[in-house]
Amino acid sequence: MATYRTLVRAASPGFLLTAFLARLPAAMAPLGIITLVATVSPSLATAGAAAAGYGAGAAIGGPVVGALADRLGQRLIGLIAAAVDAVALAGVVLGVHTALVAVAVTVAGFATPQIGPFARVRWAVLLRDRGRHDVLPTAFSYEGAADELSFMTGPALVGVLSVAGPPGLPLLVAAALTLFFAIPFALHRTAPPAVRVPGAGAARSRLPIGPLAILIPAMLAIGMIFGGTQTGVTAFAEASGHPGSAGLIYAVLGIGSTIAGLATAWLPARMGPVTRYRWSSAALTVGGCVLLVVPGSLGALCVAMAVVGATSAPYLISAGTLAIAVGPRDRAGSFMTLVASGVVAGVAVGAAVAGRLADAYGASGAFIVPAAASLFAVALATASGRVLGARASTRPTARQTADAQPAVLTSPRAPDPAGAGPAAGSEGRNPNQDQRFARPRS
């Protein structure tokens, strides 16, 4: 627990709470859209297509938001994205009976605030500034657990609100949460500034195509598991006569995933990120395929959902750790949002395909999607582990890249939370020096 206390001291408890609550709208939106559209359309395929439009917008918009944040700073871009996203979510509710709903869901997805990727970039900066690189895996374990807990809480909140009020209420609450928490997250003191490379002729680092070609499909697979599972659970709930319970059933997934995500921090350090990725992908096949073999009872489905959650969290965390290990530091926002776009694209594809299968074969047909996606994930990990390992082991050091990367993203110097003096690595600095852009340390 000492390492988790380090995270609290580095960022503050208020930041952790704000960052978690700011994630909820993105976790609520896909199921909220499916639930809302399903009330006005007799076909789950139509509802799945609407959720796919949201996911497609997010898959395209995520990298755009990340690249703009690298150039203009997380504060400005996060503020704009949150405002547009809140308006678009409200627009989905107001335009659900018209063709404008297609535009609204796409815009809502495109402008999704990139809370998870941006938070991971912030941890990398904060902990590097304090000389605590050793705590970064713990930070990513926490982020993975926070993601999974939001995936549990968001759908559960959709289920409760759908039962307690009109079908559009979950999306309106998501819009309010975006305004009240995504905007404060964007403006928080932990937000790193824009990455600027001094000198007119200096070039930014190139994004490594090889790792992206592996990690984006890897995230696509886990997204398809989530999207297919959400649609399958919705089909099961409707067939049982309780359509509003879909969010509550899906929330069971987060119980196992949250526990597994937090426990990942205690894995031995000698188990490197590539090894963790391979083993977690093997475990993911169990979670993806278990939905196909469980009996058609509520109790069995809930047990299966807990298994899916327990196997998905380590996979997400290991993939996120690999992304930081192989990506360029001066384009961290772009790289992380590109990788994360695979998840939202996968949710869109999974929901759309599972919707058609659910119309034809019921919930069991929809659950074919997570099973197939998990098999693809383990095949990809088995085939690509050596490539990722080579990239991580040969990533240039700060000394080697001083000329190629004249500027490295660092955070503004924060007060020492314990009052015990300057942060690690800050001795000898001029207190009046602009700390936004620092040359790589030797």
From TrEMBL:
<protein>
    <submittedName>
        <fullName>MFS transporter</fullName>
    </submittedName>
</protein>
<feature type="transmembrane region" description="Helical">
    <location>
        <begin position="168"/>
        <end position="187"/>
    </location>
</feature>
<feature type="transmembrane region" description="Helical">
    <location>
        <begin position="360"/>
        <end position="381"/>
    </location>
</feature>
<feature type="compositionally biased region" description="Polar residues">
    <location>
        <begin position="394"/>
        <end position="403"/>
    </location>
</feature>
<feature type="transmembrane region" description="Helical">
    <location>
        <begin position="304"/>
        <end position="326"/>
    </location>
</feature>
<feature type="region of interest" description="Disordered">
    <location>
        <begin position="391"/>
        <end position="442"/>
    </location>
</feature>
<feature type="transmembrane region" description="Helical">
    <location>
        <begin position="207"/>
        <end position="227"/>
    </location>
</feature>
<feature type="compositionally biased region" description="Low complexity">
    <location>
        <begin position="416"/>
        <end position="425"/>
    </location>
</feature>
<feature type="transmembrane region" description="Helical">
    <location>
        <begin position="49"/>
        <end position="69"/>
    </location>
</feature>
<feature type="transmembrane region" description="Helical">
    <location>
        <begin position="247"/>
        <end position="267"/>
    </location>
</feature>
<feature type="transmembrane region" description="Helical">
    <location>
        <begin position="333"/>
        <end position="354"/>
    </location>
</feature>
<keyword id="KW-0812">Transmembrane</keyword>
<feature type="transmembrane region" description="Helical">
    <location>
        <begin position="76"/>
        <end position="105"/>
    </location>
</feature>
<keyword id="KW-0472">Membrane</keyword>
<dbReference type="InterPro" id="IPR011701">
    <property type="entry name" value="MFS"/>
</dbReference>
<dbReference type="Pfam" id="PF07690">
    <property type="entry name" value="MFS_1"/>
</dbReference>
<keyword id="KW-1133">Transmembrane helix</keyword>
<dbReference type="InterPro" id="IPR036259">
    <property type="entry name" value="MFS_trans_sf"/>
</dbReference>
<feature type="transmembrane region" description="Helical">
    <location>
        <begin position="279"/>
        <end position="298"/>
    </location>
</feature>
